[in-house]
């Protein structure tokens, strides 16, 4: 049975990963010149931090339950929001910006590539920590064959990932425009709640880079199925949030006070 001490090893690893990311960001800030390369490095660092922490959150969920996992995720989401700056560690934010005409396709593609590199390469660091097996919860995990999280029909899984992403993005846009006093906490709560709701169906990733770093090549899903669920599903949901957020119906429902004041 998992103990608080073993949970402590997971918490330590997550905190250590966040500290490494802080140091890496500060070094990039000091040593890199302002421009695209600097932004690419920031994206790679953010994606590495996200995926490194979420690898360990798998351990937390498997051994301590989804509720404990949710508490960690809620806290980390707030932390990331306050420390990543302009980095997102998520591809569809740049796809939204392409739709809005705010970024070129080339720049978006490079940033997504940087995210993938950061997210996928971090596993060796995670694997090293698991290999030491400081906690019983890490025993055999370093070289264990992974299993896909999709527990429902392929297209239902894509719908779940897409619809939840759509809800997350719309909520974030509303909170941002309203400039809510506790916006970061509300946003994190909504995102975490949706992840928990989808956890036993699609895994609740809502981020193609995260899903690819953690579950690409795992038994149970082909490469095409993974792309349909975690890339096409999420990205379509995010892109649809752009025109939907601008519709009069949506704005009247969720931004009534702001509309009246204008």
What is the number of domains? 2
Derived from helix and strand composition plus strand pairing, the structural class reads mainly alpha
Round the Cα radius of gyration to an integer and report it.
19 Å
Question: How would the global form be characterised?
Answer: globular
GO cellular component, one term: membrane
Membrane topology: Multi-pass membrane protein
InterPro entries: AQP11/12_channel (IPR051883), Aquaporin-like (IPR023271), Aquaporin_11/12 (IPR016697)
Main location: membrane
Question: Care to describe what's here?
Answer:
It is found in: Membrane. It is a multi-pass membrane protein. One of its GO terms (molecular function) is channel activity. It comes from Anopheles culicifacies. This is Aquaporin. The chain folds into 2 domains: 1-144, no CATH class; 147-254, no CATH class. The protein starts with a helix and ends with a helix. The model is unreliable at 258-262 (pLDDT under 50). The protein has 262 residues and is mostly helical. It has 12 helices and no strands. Helix 2 (36-64) packs antiparallel against helix 3 (66-83).
Features:
single chain, 262 residues, mainly alpha, 2 domains, 12 helices, globular, disordered C terminus
Any chance you could write out the topology, listing elements then pairs?
Elements: H1 4-31, H2 36-64, H3 66-83, H4 91-100, H5 105-121, H6 123-132, H7 154-178, H8 183-198, H9 208-215, H10 223-246, H11 248-254, H12 256-261
Helix pairs in contact: 1-2, 2-3, 2-5, 2-9, 3-8, 4-5, 4-10, 5-9, 7-8, 7-10, 9-10
């Amino acid at each position: 049975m998992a103990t608080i001490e073993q949970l402590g090893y997971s918490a330590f690893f997550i905190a250590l990963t966040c500290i490494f990311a802080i140091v890496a960001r500060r070094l990039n800030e000091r040593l890199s010149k302002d421009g695209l390369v600097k932004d690419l490095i920031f994206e790679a660092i953010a994606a590495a931090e996200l995926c490194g922490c979420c690898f360990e959150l798998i351990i937390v969920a498997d051994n301590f339950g989804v509720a404990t996992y949710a508490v960690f995720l809620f806290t980390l989401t707030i932390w990331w929001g306050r420390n990543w700056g302009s980095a997102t560690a998520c591809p569809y934010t740049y796809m939204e910006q392409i739709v809005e005409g705010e970024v070129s396709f080339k720049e978006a593609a490079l940033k997504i590539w940087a995210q993938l590199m950061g997210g996928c390469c971090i596993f060796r660091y995670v694997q090293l920590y698991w290999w030491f097996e400081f906690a019983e919860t890490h025993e055999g995990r370093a070289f264990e064959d992974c299993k896909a999280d999709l527990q429902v029909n392929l297209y239902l899984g894509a719908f779940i990932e897409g619809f939840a992403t759509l809800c997350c993005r719309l909520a974030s846009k509303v909170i941002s425009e309203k400039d809510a006093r506790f916006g970061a906490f509300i946003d994190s709560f909504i995102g975490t709640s949706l992840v928990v709701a989808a956890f036993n169906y699609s895994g609740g990733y809502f981020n193609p880079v995260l899903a690819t770093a953690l579950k690409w090549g795992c038994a149970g899903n082909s490469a095409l199925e993974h792309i349909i669920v975690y890339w096409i599903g999420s990205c379509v949901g995010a892109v649809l949030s752009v025109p939907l957020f601008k519709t009069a119906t949506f704005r009247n429902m969720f931004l009534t006070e702001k509309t009246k004041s204008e």
